[in-house]
Design a protein that fits this description.
- The protein is mostly helical.
- The protein has one domain.
- Helices cover 83% and strands 0% of the residues.
- Helix 2 packs parallel to helix 5 and helix 3 runs antiparallel to helix 4.
- The mean pLDDT is 88.
Length: 145
Amino acid sequence: MHYRQFLFLVFLAFYTASCDSTPTDAELAQKEINTLKKEIMASHDSTMAQMNTMAKLRNQLKEAKADTTAAPEDTLSYHESYRLLMAASNGMMDWMAQFENPDNQTISDSAKIDYLNRQKELMYALEKDTEQAISKAKQLLEEQG
């Protein structure tokens, strides 16, 4: 009877040792891919939430420019602020049109990670451009209002 218990314990020890919980390279890569996708989508969602604000600000800039007898340099400020808002909005639309989920591509995990890192940089730049365009438009409208 002791012999069977001994064999069971030996089997259990080998089984436990073989179930090492160290993640594989593929698991680590997939974790990084998922993290990058979450970061990109969080930035995307944050920026998309600003699209209505940018549209309203563009309309306010148009109205303010039309209602003012401002000096030419002020008119240029309205035009520049409007242009920045449009560039941010168009940049977001362009980014969405070119973005491809790497899970749908037959490329290596390393290539997926490289692609997502580039997309993250692009999305973060768009988020920054959007915030700056909104800030500049609000400041201009407050100064002229």
